Structures are given as structure tokens and as C-alpha cells.
């Protein structure tokens, strides 16, 4: 599939490290919002038996996804398996084995960015949304950070961007 999309040019402005960081930021907001949902008590009467346990369990799932994104980001920024493993209380080989499938999926998505749906007509992006459309992700994540009083442009400002391509000299007649 060699067709391009409008997102391809936007994505080219970002390094793989920056894209991985955007995915981590996106997953971190999911964790924060999931945790925030457990704070308010006013809707407790509307929640069925076990409902808060369900929310807390979903929070663990969201945190696991954020952890996998953090590992991918750390690998993209050059961290070794030994450096990552020390924070997971695992050996380097165990850490690599635990996250190998996620890292392989990440790497493969850059080589094969789309797959066709069951009809064979619609392309499905293989990258997480924040990496597939990073301009949108920056806007959304900066807005989220601003609303949380973390800071304006708290996400997009610190990203490692790709070096701009050198423009070819213009030819004058």
C-alpha cells in the first residue's frame, strides 16, 4: 500500500521518538481520566454492584498500556533493556521478552502503516492514533494539559522533532 494520506506529511515532521512520546502522553491522559472517574462520589447510587471495581480494574489495564508505551518510548530514545528492566524489577531478558510483541508491532507499523479491513476497501492505520496523526494529538494533548493546569504547550514544546528537509535551491531562468 503505497498511497499517501494527508497525515503522512505531518508525521514526517516528527521523529519516531517524538511519536512514541505522543503515544505515551495519550495513554497517560487515559490513565489520569480513568483515575479521576473514581474520585467523584455523586454518581455512586447509579453505579451497579461491582461497578467501581470494574472502573479500578480498567485503570490497571490502562496503566499496563501506558507502561508498554513508556517502554517503547524509552527504546526509541536509546535506553537499554538493562536500564528499563531495573525499574520493572526484572532482568533485561525478561523485560525484553515481556514487551517484545508490543515493540515489534510498533516497528512493523512504520514498515506496513495500514492493513485493509474485511471488505478490502478501507485502510486501517497500524500506528496508535497519537502517532498516526501527531498534529491532532499535539493539539489535543496540549489542550488537556492546559485544562489540567499542567501548562500551555506542555506536551508539544518538549518533543524531539525531525530535522527539516533541506529545500532544493530554486532554479532561476
Report on this structure.
The chain has 173 residues and is mainly α. The chain has one domain (6-40, 49-158). It has helices spanning 6-12, 16-36, 51-76, 81-88, 92-111, 129-132, 134-147; strands at 114-116, 123-125. Strands 1-2 form a two-stranded antiparallel sheet.
What secondary-structure arrangement, pairings included, does this model have?
Layout: H1 6-12, H2 16-36, H3 51-76, H4 81-88, H5 92-111, E1 114-116, E2 123-125, H6 129-132, H7 134-147
Helix pairs in contact: 2-3, 2-7, 3-5, 4-5
Quickly list its features:
173 residues, globular, disordered C terminus, mainly alpha, two-stranded antiparallel sheet
Number of domains: 1
Radius of gyration: 19 Å
User: What is the count of β-strands?
Assistant: 2
What characterizes the major β-sheet?
Answer: 2 strands, antiparallel
Helix run count: 7
- How far is the N terminus from the C terminus? 38 Å
Task: Briefly summarize what is shown.
The protein has 173 residues and is mainly α. The protein has helices at residues 6-12, 16-36, 51-76, 81-88, 92-111, 129-132, 134-147, and strands at residues 114-116, 123-125.
Amino acid at each position: 500500500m503505497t498511497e499517501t494520506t494527508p497525515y503522512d506529511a505531518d508525521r514526517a515532521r516528527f521523529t519516531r521518538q517524538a511519536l512514541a512520546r505522543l503515544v505515551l502522553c495519550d495513554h497517560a491522559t487515559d490513565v489520569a481520566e480513568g483515575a479521576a472517574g473514581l474520585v467523584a462520589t455523586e454518581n455512586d447510587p447509579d453505579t451497579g454492584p461491582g461497578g467501581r471495581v470494574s472502573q479500578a480494574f480498567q485503570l490497571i489495564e490502562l496503566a499496563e498500556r501506558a507502561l508498554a508505551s513508556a517502554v517503547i518510548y524509552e527504546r526509541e530514545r536509546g535506553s537499554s533493556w538493562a536500564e528499563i528492566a531495573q525499574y520493572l524489577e526484572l532482568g533485561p531478558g525478561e523485560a525484553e521478552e515481556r514487551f517484545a510483541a508490543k515493540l515489534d508491532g510498533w516497528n512493523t507499523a512504520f514498515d506496513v502503516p495500514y492493513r485493509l479491513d474485511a471488505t478490502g476497501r478501507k485502510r486501517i492505520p497500524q500506528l496508535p492514533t497519537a502517532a498516526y496523526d501527531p498534529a491532532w494529538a499535539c493539539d489535543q494533548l496540549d489542550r488537556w494539559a492546559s485544562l489540567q493546569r499542567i501548562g500551555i504547550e506542555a506536551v508539544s514544546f518538549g518533543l524531539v522533532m525531525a530535522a527539516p528537509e533541506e529545500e532544493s535551491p530554486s532554479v532561476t531562468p
